[in-house]
Amino acid sequence: MRPNFFHHLHPPTIPAQQSRWRYTLGAGGTAVFLLFVLAITGMLEMFYYTPTPEQAALSVQTISYHVPLGGLVRNTHYWSAQLLMIVMAAHLIRVVMTGAYRSPRRFNYLLGLVLFVAVVLLNFTGYILRWDQGIQWALVVGTNLLKTIPVAGDALYVMLIGGSQPGPATLIRFYAWHIFGLGLLVVILTGWHIFRVRRDGGIAVPPPRLREDDARITRFELVQREVLAMILITAILFILAIFFPAPIDAPIEQLTTMANDASAPWFFLWVQQMLKWGDPFVWGIVVPLVVMLILALIPYVLPQAQDAELGRWFPKSNRLARLVLIGISLLVIVLTLLALLPGS
Ligand code: HEM
Q1: Using a 6 Å cutoff on CB, does residue 28 contact ligand 1?
Q2: Which among 226, 233, 270, 299 could bridge 101 via Cys, Cβ 3.0 to 4.6 Å?
Q3: What pTM value is reported for the model?
């Protein structure tokens, strides 16, 4: 048989160390599987979803309560998206905490970071598609942040919203971004990212001469582990989808009458909390961009893990990078918890 993309990703044998759950957490592979589930369930939802302000929330209710298996499909789509955010964060943390981002994997680390941003935006645009009362904060306050950008702000706002205020054009634009623009971008970036993993020599482990563990596993054993992981994740998704339905509120009647407790989607609560401190441009745009920039610079400016230390957690030589990531993670977690406090 001619070698194909599958063979490229699954060579006949690989070092056992590269496939240990306790090293990789299986997080990258889980993220790929969740993206696959998202694509399938999203395509099924498209048969019933209507992207107009009057119909959107009602069509989501129809999918949830009236279409046979519609509720299961929608809840699975919703939970795959939320799990993907957590799994992707776990993958980023494992890559930094094991020092795996170092050369020659610096470029792939940057690809991963772009993928991270694209997935967050995919989740955000999907959240807006509900067009129910629960999404008003994101739609009004979130998009108004664009206007605060000096010089280009107003033009960017009109480009995203399709007018001077949210309306029918906005929903169509978010729909197009969600399914076509960002969806396609994420598919291409994911393909490129996993192709690069192999091109860079597979998962980071010490070079053969420094390796203490020479055990190898076959392509067949690797696929067995992957299938086991997929069965486990499918079971978790089904449990979540059956017992915890995805939220859907009443349709938006008047965008100007926003409830006092309106809030951002959970993954932007940390930004919402910072916006209470003052200048929306500084706290809503500059600080998140600086956080991304610091993450992007980690492989380029901080000391890297040494060859012999690869393939395990917490290598001594990349301590500074780990401290930086712990700082950023604590900031995001504490701000999110503050935003969740009653009366905050
Ligand atoms: C949807 C998002 C993502 C997907 C689907 C994905 C997928 C994968 C897969 C399948 C692997 C190989 C298995 C593994 O290491 O667990 C991998 C490795 C890698 N990823 Fe990601 N990834 C994503 C996001 C990220 C992010 C946010 C970063 C970092 C900024 C990143 C950086 C890396 C690096 C450096 C490797 C090589 C790790 C090593 O050699 O040990 N990825 N990714």
Answers
A1: yes
A2: 299
A3: 0.95
